[in-house]
Amino acid sequence: MKRLLPIMLLLIVISACKKEKQGDYSETITKGEKWGIQIGSTPAEVFAQLQQAGKTLDFQNVAIYGRKPYSSPEKLAGILPFYYALTVYNNTGTLDRAVFLFSGDKVQQIATGGGLTSDVTKWPDGAADDTAIKIDDPVNEMGAKLLKIHQLPAYAAYGFVLSDKPLNKAYDPDLNNYTDWQFVFSDFISSNVIGSSTVKLHFSAGRLERMDHDYREGQIFN
User: Quick check: 47 pLDDT over 50?
Assistant: First the structure.
């Protein structure tokens, strides 16, 4: 009986630890690592770690907090190839936008409109061929065309919004300027319960300072 007592106590402790991680919970990681993401890493190192974690946890993008819409396209020319989409939208008056989706290093799709969008082959429709952005245009040449479009009076007030940062493209050095990133992933706990994790990464002085992990379970209704 005396030998069994320590074993029983150990099992109780293990059971209690497991119970703490069942259901909804939140945690803050400030030391070591989780999912292969190491506290103290630089933004570029964290991005490489996220590329590996994304393969295991099945997520493809990381959101960048604090990145506001660009009011002009000058800064976009060099970083567009690091992303999978760009939205150009009207800042004033009637809602109007053009959404460009990239595949590899070319423009794959262009959709325009307000609430609902329609696919087109070029934008703006009435612009000259050396100005309008067209399907199959190289992404690294979009910046020069966006500058020309922005100089047209009808589009001078348009803003520019980048997509989330995809993990299957190279690191964007501009991410060094943003201290808060986020990624989300989910996993099936059972046939009718899914667990969803929201992870916020906070950088300070060029290093990953902490990860805030919020886990929630939800019912799946068929």
Answer: yes
Q: How far is CA 197 from CA 31, 160, 161, 181, 187, in A?
A: 19, 29, 26, 14, 9
Average confidence score pLDDT of the chain? 89
Buried-exposed string 112-121: b where 16+ CB fall within 10 A, e elsewhere: beeeeeeebe
Euclidean distance between the first and final Cα of the chain, in Å?
Answer: 50
- Counts for the chain of helices (H) and strands (E), in that order: 3, 15
pLDDT at 191 over 90: no
- Tokens of residue 15, six digits: 């059971």
The pLDDT of 152-157, averaged and rounded, is: 92
**Per-residue pLDDT, 77:** 87
CB 102 within 8 A of CB 139: yes
DSSP state of 184: E
DSSP-derived 3-state class of residue 168: coil
Strand partners, 195: 187, 217
Per DSSP, 164 falls in state P
| 164 pLDDT more than 90 | yes
The reported pLDDT for the residue numbered 222 is: 66
Cβ–Cβ contacts within 10 Å for residue 50, how many?
24
What are the DSSP calls for 19-88, one per residue?
Answer: HHTSSSEEEEE-SSEETTEETT--HHHHHHHHHHHHHHHT--EEEETT-PPBSSSGGGTTTGGG-SEEEE
